[in-house]
Specification:
four-stranded antiparallel sheet; binds pyridoxal-5'-phosphate
Length: 382
């Protein structure tokens, strides 16, 4: 089936966080991580069918949803999970915050690698824990966890490690060996491993594969909470459906205790969309990945030509990570915003002077944004 990702759809008037940020100012929004593409027709159809039944009462996960999720994970990653391991959540960020509350005591250290998606840095403080930032290493044109720095950062008060794979914002798909090293450190130091794998369906490099860290061994699975959702791959973040997977009943019990009375149940439409995505979204997903690959290649080619900017290759996600420190402007975010391109500030990810660019939009719009960026830098040099 043909899907058209080139069509531009007006999102004004749809309460879009991404598009409302700049109002009607001529700034192309490329910051928050949602896509300017219509979602899969099979999902729209499933939602429409449910909307046509006019009673939206309290709901439980539809009877086929766990099965659809289990089959999806087995088909995609050869990872076999049991239905009772799944804990439904209204979002991944909720999951990160719940995990921080569930394990260790107040004041405990929560380790993560920076740069990182900002809620990894705020969730520990929300739970009266302490976020410990391990700086990632950049080598041979790619970012890696610095295992020596991680070992140095672990103390007797460390209880939890937050992993992001594929990694937002650096776009890495960690290899089996890299994952094993991180997970082995958790085993050695008795840390709970929370793995945010929301970008699992967005691996762009054809030679790379997403590996759920909990699938590496039984020993690792026993201390792991995996957070997943169909929302990033299928562009459903406003529908609020995500899940944790934990095979260890004690870990699950702690999660549920931390959620009790606070975390709201998942919305009906989120369940419906997730099941439709997993059962009927594959063709759309493959076409999306093709299109995103083209966008990514364009961004990487064009940004590499801009003096003062450095870009890393995104193996996965629709996010490019850019170093703007050599631009020698006090505020690169403002500089590009003045040029009509709204990026995300690297400082929020623990990396001042860097920028994140969301390239999940129709290619003509992306071309316009890249032209604006190149022209703004060029004009400054005149
Ligand atoms: C790594 C990561 N985790 C979580 C989220 C957000 O998840 P949710 O919208 O389900 O809270 C994002 C969104 O960009 C993300 O990149």
């Amino acid at each position: 089936m043909e899907f058209n990702f080139d069509t531009s759809i007006d999102r004004y008037g749809t309460a879009s966080v991404k598009w409302n940020k700049y109002g009607r100012r001529d700034i192309i929004p490329m910051w928050v991580a949602d896509m300017d593409f219509a979602c899969a027709p099979a999902i729209v159809e499933a939602l429409r069918r449910r909307v046509d039944h006019p009673i939206y009462g309290y709901s439980e996960p539809p009877s086929g949803l766990a099965d659809a999720t289990i089959s999806h994970l087995e088909n995609q990653y050869g990872w076999k999970i049991q239905p009772e391991w799944i804990v439904w959540l209204p979002g991944l960020v909720v999951g990160l915050n719940v995990v921080c509350r569930a394990f260790g005591r107040e004041g405990a250290d929560v380790l993560t690698a920076v740069p990182i998606y900002p809620p990894f840095l705020s969730a520990p403080a929300n739970a009266a824990r302490h976020a410990v930032r391990v700086q990632m290493l950049e080598a041979n044109g790619a970012w890696h966890w610095d295992m020596a720095a991680l070992e140095r950062a672990i103390t007797p008060s460390s209880r939890l490690l937050l992993l992001c794979n594929p990694h937002n914002p650096v776009g890495r798909v960690f290899s089996r060996d890299e994952l094993r090293e991180i997970a082995d450190a958790c085993v050695r130091h008795n840390l709970i491993l929370c793995s945010d794998e929301i970008h699992n369906g967005l691996v762009l490099d054809t030679g790379k594969r997403h590996i759920p860290v909990a699938s590496l061994s039984e020993e690792i699975a026993q201390r792991t909470v995996t957070l997943m959702s169909a929302s990033k791959t299928f562009n459903l973040p406003a529908l609020g459906c995500a899940y944790a997977i934990a095979s260890n009943p004690d870990v699950r019990a702690k999660l549920k205790k931390a959620m009790a009375g606070i975390v709201h149940h998942v919305g009906l439409m989120g369940y419906i969309a997730t099941e439709a995505a997993y059962r009927k979204g594959k063709d759309w997903q493959l076409a999306l990945l093709d299109y995103l690959r083209g966008n990514r290649d364009l961004v990487e080619r064009e940004i590499a030509k801009v003096p003062g900017l450095r870009i890393w290759h995104a193996e996965a996600t629709y996010l490019s990570w850019i170093d703007a420190r050599e631009l020698r402007t006090d505020d690169p975010l403002q500089f590009f915003s003045d040029a009509g391109v709204g990026l995300y500030d690297g400082a929020l990810f623990g990396a001042p002077g860097f920028l994140r660019l969301n390239f999940a939009c129709p290619r003509p719009l992306l071309e316009r944004a890249l032209e604006r960026m190149a022209r703004a830098v060029d004009a400054r040099r005149d």
